[in-house]
């Protein structure tokens, strides 16, 4: 517990450092916000254009798909804040920064997360909430008093699932000779969790549920709020999956660190 | 000079070849992407015969071809330029006896050839076993596609050079590069054929260069247009290439005069 408190203390320090560096490049800061917004809108364009031609995708209406997308943005934003080490391999392995990390007093993964923290991604949560609100009004959804609590739990779970998968994949850098790594792959696959998994065939559905469980970051938890009772079991499994996958992520990471031999610089 | 660029292309090709993990993950990425879109479109079509002027079979072929074309034209040289600028490497590049932008283009070309041969080739072969898929029937059809693809590569590389050059003025523009990537994917017709968009959007996109990056070569590949029309599209690509060349030259001039090396 003492350890956790320590990490949070350091977290606050890094946060203030972060804002100092970010505000040194003000144009970039605004540019980043704008470009994240553009990326989010473009994904909406796909949904809107497709539904101009068809009334349903599988069993799902346009507004339901939009709601799922809005939900997805929230855990994804939380994940981006804390696990922004997209260039882990380049920065830490190839240039030997990892050697420096290992000399630090906090846990090495926490240290890496702290160094690449990106609080401005919190805006993703806001866009997610706006998109969900629009869809909820269109769909005339009603909520119970405890739904916000469930929402927070499911969002954090989703972010942890991403974090776990992502940490495990970054840890591959400790084992392999690959240079750019597998990040683009994840970047590509993650989006498929945003669509109802019942449209895919069994293999892809299985992968998105149990192997790279991105469906737990999008369609499964969102199904609870859309009152799709068929998926309640999966929605309830989200926190369990989060614990399992984040655990696996840390495990793979720790094994990787023990295998790490330094960059020889 | 030509020998130098040939060597650069070869080097990048071999560098790509050296990392096995990337190679395997690349094939998986292409298979998963094409596969996932296949099912997604299947669900979208449901029972409908035609959407946006395409049948479901034409749609799946279109998706596969679009990804295959992307394998060739896609590159990250804007990110590489940004990194060179941030690390101050670009100062060294500037005093070397070659043109920095041409070097980057040559490297991108080496990468493109690699992806085309090793990702798109096997990927398309696998897909053609599963879904009905028609290749161009004539040598002329292939020729037209490859010419058009070559221009697609050049135009996309120019767009990347342009966003990369902005790093000289903004120091950090990762956000801009990310946004560019999603815009190009959408507007070039990779995720949605252009014919799906509402009329006004199609008109607007007709005045933008992005269609020349994917939609034109993919259209030529399907053989859905006459060879006369294909040449016309290639002509458009040529015009776009010259148009985008102008801001690149201007920015490059300016960049060299106001280079601020951050450390390095």
Automatic annotation (TrEMBL), chain A:
It holds the Pfam family ABC2_membrane_6. The chain crosses the membrane at residues 29-54, 66-86, 122-143, 149-175, 203-225, 231-253. InterPro entries: ABC-2_transporter-like. The keyword Membrane applies. Keywords: Membrane, Transmembrane, Transmembrane helix. The keyword Transmembrane applies. It comes from the Bacteria. This is ABC transporter permease.
TrEMBL record, chain B:
InterPro entries: ABC-2_transporter-like (IPR010390). Pfam families: ABC2_membrane_6. The chain crosses the membrane at residues 21-39, 59-77, 113-133, 145-170, 238-255. Keywords: Membrane, Transmembrane, Transmembrane helix. PANTHER family: SLR1174 PROTEIN, SLR1174 PROTEIN-RELATED. This is Daunorubicin ABC transporter permease.
């Amino acid at each position: 517990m003492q350890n956790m408190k320590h990490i949070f203390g350091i977290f606050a320090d890094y946060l203030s450092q972060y804002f100092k560096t970010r505000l040194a490049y003000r144009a970039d800061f605004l540019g980043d916000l704008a470009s994240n917004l553009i990326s989010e809108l473009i994904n909406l364009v796909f949904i809107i254009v497709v539904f101009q031609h068809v009334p349903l995708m599988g069993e799902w209406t346009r507004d339901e798909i939009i709601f799922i997308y809005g939900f997805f943005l929230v855990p994804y934003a939380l994940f981006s804040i804390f696990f922004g080490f997209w260039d882990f391999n380049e920065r830490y392995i190839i240039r030997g920064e990892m050697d420096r990390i290992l000399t630090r007093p906090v846990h090495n993964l926490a240290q890496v997360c702290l160094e690449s923290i990106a609080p401005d991604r919190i805006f993703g949560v806001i866009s997610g909430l706006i998109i969900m609100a629009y869809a909820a009004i269109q769909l005339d959804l009603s909520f119970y008093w405890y739904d916000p609590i469930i929402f927070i739990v499911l969002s954090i779970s989703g972010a942890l699932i991403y974090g776990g998968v992502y940490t495990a994949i970054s840890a591959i850098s400790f084992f392999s000779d690959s240079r750019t790594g597998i990040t683009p792959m994840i970047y590509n696959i993650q989006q498929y969790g945003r669509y109802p998994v019942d449209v895919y065939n069994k293999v892809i559905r299985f992968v998105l549920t149990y192997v790279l469980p991105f469906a737990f970051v999008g369609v499964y938890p969102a199904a609870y709020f859309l009152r799709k009772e068929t998926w309640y079991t999966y929605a309830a499994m989200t926190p369990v999956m989060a614990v399992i996958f984040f655990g696996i992520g840390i495990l793979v990471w720790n094994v990787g660190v023990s295998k790490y031999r330094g960059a020889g610089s | 000079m030509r020998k130098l660029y040939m060597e650069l292309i070869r080097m990048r090709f071999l560098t790509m070849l050296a990392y096995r993990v990337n190679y395997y993950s690349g094939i998986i990425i292409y298979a998963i992407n094409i596969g996932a879109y296949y099912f997604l479109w299947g669900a979208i079509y449901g029972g409908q015969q035609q959407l946006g002027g395409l049948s479901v079979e034409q749609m799946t072929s279109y998706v596969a071809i679009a990804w295959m074309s992307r394998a060739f034209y896609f590159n990250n040289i804007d990110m590489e330029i940004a990194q060179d600028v941030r690390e101050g490497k670009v100062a060294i590049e500037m005093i070397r006896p070659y043109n920095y932008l041409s070097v980057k283009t040559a490297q991108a070309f080496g990468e493109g050839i690699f992806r085309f041969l090793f990702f798109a080739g096997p990927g398309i072969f696998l897909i053609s076993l599963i879904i009905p898929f028609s290749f161009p029937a004539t040598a002329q059809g292939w020729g037209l596609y490859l010419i058009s693809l070559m221009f697609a590569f050049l135009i996309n590389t120019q767009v990347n050079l342009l966003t990369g050059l902005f790093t000289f003025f903004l120091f950090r523009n990762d956000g801009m590069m990310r946004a560019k990537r999603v815009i190009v994917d959408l507007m070039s017709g990779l995720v949605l054929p252009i014919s799906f968009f509402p009329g006004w959007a199609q008109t607007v996109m007709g005045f933008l260069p992005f269609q020349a990056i994917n939609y034109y070569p993919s259209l030529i590949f399907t053989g859905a247009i006459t060879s006369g029309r294909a040449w016309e599209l290639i002509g458009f690509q040529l015009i776009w290439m010259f148009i985008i060349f102008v801001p690149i030259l201007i920015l490059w001039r300016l960049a060299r005069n106001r280079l601020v090396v951050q450390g390095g």
